[in-house]
Amino acid sequence: MSRDSFLVFGAPAIEEDEIAEVISCMRSGWLGTGPKVAQFEADFANYKEIPYTAAVNSCTASLHLSILAAGLRPGDEVITTALTFCATINAIIHSGATPVLADVDPRTMNIDPNDIERHITPRTRAILPVHFAGRPCDMDAIMSIAERHQLKVIEDCAHAIETEYKGRKAGTFGDFGCFSFYVTKNIVTGEGGMVIARNSEDIAKIKILALHGMSKDAWSRFSDAGYKHYFVTECGFKYNMMDIQAAIGIHQLKRVEKCWTRREAIWKKYNQAFNTLPITIPEMVEPHIRHAYHLYTILIDEKKTGISRDAFLDAMTEAKIGVGVHYLSIPEHPYYQETFGWKPEDYPHAMQIGRQTVSLPISSKLSDRDVEDVIAAVTRAIKG
Ligand SMILES: *Cc1c(COP(=O)(O)O)cnc(C)c1O
């Protein structure tokens, strides 16, 4: 009854248009940061309805640069969620600032604004919310806290390309919005990221920091307008996106809504199929939000479900269905325990989700047959 081939979790949907664009990019001889990156930035700005965008080589880079461009200094505290990918925390550490964790709302799995308030100190300078799985954070509450305490807001939108909150697009609430085009994300460029910013000076700063701190990028130095000297005005980084990557992104972005519609259909099928199983399915999508449907996560509570989370993961792998865990809570990892003294028990909701959660495949690439196979495997693993 089992599938013939393994269903790879988060497999990207690549089509002929991006393949042709990559080939044309390679034939053009211009592989580095150039006209295709400029076009991808313009297209993304158009999609997000905000003028200021900067393409970089990862979301991690975009978070790092945003924190620096926000003017944070060593000793400054950034409040973020205990339920996120390690890159969110590492970017804060790389910038020299100090990460401070808040627990999540167990219903939405997003950072709990009340717990943000509890962690504010005289050194707090910024809030870094993560729109988990593609569900927007409570941005009214977060922006009101930020305003009262004069904090910068940097949105981790790695899951949230299509996300909206009360009709407004994720990434446009804060000073910065940071996006990922890693291979499993809703738009892929292989590796890649994008920063959107509320003002032009911030995006100019980010563009300089992303390429060694140089005042002119390579495209404007070597184009047919003639050689131009550059000057190093900051000690920057090597975080620029290549045209080869942007060539993929331009076509992925054109299909973003079509892929979203497909994932929404899969989401609804899963909801319907798992409704009666003894597992927790995602919270309903409230009318005031637009979910990006990046992750479909279920909770396996051994007492209720009759199987442990890790045994469930094994059963799915056995049935040739690739699954993920997003995420063990941040305080479960030894580095952060040793460096900050964090304990999982201090963030009980994030801890519990981290120990029970399983992400099922929800790539737009899934066929109806794949979706049926996932449903059958989940049902069999639980009902035996
Ligand atoms: C994937 C991810 C990142 C990092 O993105 P990269 O592009 O791989 O650097 C950051 N935050 C979250 C929540 C993510 O899921």
Structure write-up:
This protein is globular. Helices cover 41% and strands 12% of the residues. It has 384 residues and is of the alpha/beta class. The chain has 2 domains: 16-254, Aspartate Aminotransferase, domain 2; 256-383, Aspartate Aminotransferase, domain 1 (Alpha-Beta Complex). A 7-stranded mixed sheet has the order 1-9-8-5-4-2-3, sandwiched between helices. A 3-stranded antiparallel sheet has the order 7-6-10, with no helix packed on it. The protein is built from 15 helices and 12 strands. The protein binds pyridoxal-5'-phosphate. Pyridoxal-5'-phosphate is lined by residues 58-60, 84-85, 87-88, 130, 156, 158-159, 180, 182, 193. Pyridoxal-5'-phosphate (PLP) binds at residues 58-60, 84-85, 87-88, 130, 156, 158-159, 180, 182, 193.
Strand and helix map with partners:
Layout: H1 16-28, H2 35-48, E1 53-56, H3 59-69, E2 77-81, H4 86-94, E3 98-102, H5 113-118, E4 124-128, H6 139-149, E5 152-156, E6 164-165, E7 168-169, E8 176-180, E9 193-197, H7 200-209, H8 218-222, H9 243-254, H10 256-274, E10 289-290, E11 296-299, H11 302-305, H12 309-318, H13 334-340, H14 348-356, E12 357-360, H15 368-383
Parallel strand pairs: 2-3, 2-4, 4-5, 5-8
Antiparallel strand pairs: 1-9, 6-7, 6-10, 8-9, 11-12
Bound molecules: pyridoxal-5'-phosphate.
- Under CATH, the topology of the largest domain can be stated as Aspartate Aminotransferase, domain 2
Number of helices: 15
Strand order of the largest sheet: 1-9-8-5-4-2-3
* Major beta sheet summary: 7 strands, mixed
Estimated radius of gyration: 21 Å
Euclidean distance between termini CA atoms: 14 Å
Q: Structural class of the secondary structure composition? A: alpha/beta
Beta strands, count: 12
Return the string of H and E elements: HHEHEHEHEHEEEEEHHHHEEHHHHEH
CATH superfamily of the largest domain: Type I PLP-dependent aspartate aminotransferase-like (Major domain)
What is the subunit organization of this protein? single chain
* Ligand inventory: pyridoxal-5'-phosphate
CATH class of the largest domain: Alpha Beta
Number of domains: 2
Instruction: Tell me the helix content.
Output: 40-55%
The CATH architecture classification of the largest domain is 3-Layer(aba) Sandwich
Shape, principal axes of CA atoms: globular
